[in-house]
Structures are given as structure tokens and as C-alpha cells.
């Protein structure tokens, strides 16, 4: 019998329940998957709390990897037996499951050298890193960037990729342990934001100039420090809200900070075009398969332990990537 984590109301981690589910046969355009590993992402907590509203009851999770067991009519880009991965938004909700039906459109066939556990740990984070590195700003060797949450799943990928591009990387973390992890993955300078003034330290490290780009997945708590860390005409990329949404501001603030730019991109808009999605996926999976970027799976949970996993995630007790094993 298949099982899934489902919620019948929004709220704290305890609203999630481990339930038996009927899967059935795929309809036209669908595939039936047997999951081998499931990704744990901070965005999952937004669905659980109701920040991202969905009709209830609902499944949980938007990223997983496994094997295609059956396909419905009209599905041609994957076949039974293929190892696949996927990520998305509402269209992939329900990944916290041992088996499921899903629209076949988001499915990505895995390269031979990428294990399902690795894929579940990196598909969302990897595609996010890919568009941040390749689509947002024309990065050039010698530039300096600031990465918040540098020891997190996306942060570790960004730091490694930045070094491949010849960039200088400043990262922020919340502990000595996380500082060591960030340094091991490409951070040239690490700032402990619990003990240091981030913007002041960035200015010291850059000779007063500031950084070209700030990659900020934290949001509310880091927004002003991010703006204050930018060089003239630099860019703040707000791509996450781990501490809450960034505050509203008057456009004149950007002029006062040095004619800086702010963007709030979403992964969905960078993988909506199948061709662009394939390009980004090919690059990140290629870098990982070649060993040029390492994916660190630092936490593994049984799927039925989703409540504890969410507690750990929200308490900032995790580093790198976290997955559920089936």
C-alpha cells in the first residue's frame, strides 16, 4: 500500500499526517512514479502554514526522484523504467509520498551518474542556483558577491559555482560550524551575522566599495543589510523569505543607496519554457556529474518523520540539503 504525508488543516508541523493512499492508474498526460528519495525544502513550510494557500486536504512537498512505473496516453518523453526527478510548485505538490500520480510534463530524466538521492537533494536547489548564476546578472571574473545562508542547500551550490566563474565570495552564516562548511565550499570570507554587522564587514572586505550582487534567501531580517552591502548600481536578488517577506519600501531608497537594483525572481518563471529548463538542468547536472559541484546531503529522514524534519528546518538546525528516504 502506498503512503503519503498529507495535511487537513494548516499550521505547525503537527498538522502533517502519515496516511495510506490509493494511487491508481495514470490518466492521459500523467505518469505513475515510485519514489526513491524526496526533497525537503523551506518552501514546503509555506504550504504547511498556509502562506502559499492550496485547497485542503492536500499533499506536501514539491520535489522528488524515483522510477516511472506506468505512463498514460500521450506521454512520450519518459517511459516505464526511467529514473526521473522533478520540482515545481502547486503542479508538483504531493512529493511526500512513496508512490504517486503526477503530470508527466515536469519530469526530467536523470543522467546515469546522478543517483536518486542526489537528485532529490538538488533539483530545486540546483535549478534555482542555475538561474541565479546564469540568468539574473552578467557575472564577470574578479567581481565580489554576497551570499546569505551560505551553508544552506542553495548557498553551498552558489558558492561553488561562483568560484568556477572566478568570483570572490562573501557568505553569511549563524555559527562556527556553518562557517567551516561554507569555507570548505568556496567562501573566501565568512561573516557570522549573530556577532558581526554584515554591511560594515562587507565594506571592510571590499575596501569600501561593496559587492556587485547580493543573493538573499532570508528576506525580512537581512533586507537592509543587503542593500547596504551593495556597490553603486549593484543588484539585490531577493529569492527567498526564510525570515518573512522583505519590507515594503519607497523607490527613492534605491537611489539613496547608490542607484541600486532589486529583483524578486521565482524559479517557476525560469523553468516555464521547456527549452530553457533543459538548458539549466543540463548545466547543473553536468557540473555535479563531473564532480565540479558537490551536493551535500547532511540530513536524512524517514518520510514518516516529516514533523521532526520540519521542526529541524525551521529551527535552523540543518546545513546543506535534506532528504526523505523511502
UniProtKB/TrEMBL annotation:
Family annotation (InterPro entries): ADH-like_C, ADH-like_N, ER, GroES-like_sf, NAD(P)-bd_dom_sf, QOR-like, Quin_OxRdtase/zeta-crystal_CS
Molecular function via GO: mRNA 3'-UTR AU-rich region binding; NADPH binding; quinone reductase (NADPH) activity; zinc ion binding
Gene3D superfamilies for this protein: Medium-chain alcohol dehydrogenases, catalytic domain, NAD(P)-binding Rossmann-like Domain
Ranges where the Enoyl reductase (ER) domain occurs: 11-324
The entry's keywords: NADP, Oxidoreductase
GO cellular component term, pick one: cytosol
KW NADP (keyword) present: yes
NCBIfam families named in the record: PRK10754.1 (NF008024)
Protein name (record): NADPH2:quinone reductase
Gene source species: Paraburkholderia susongensis
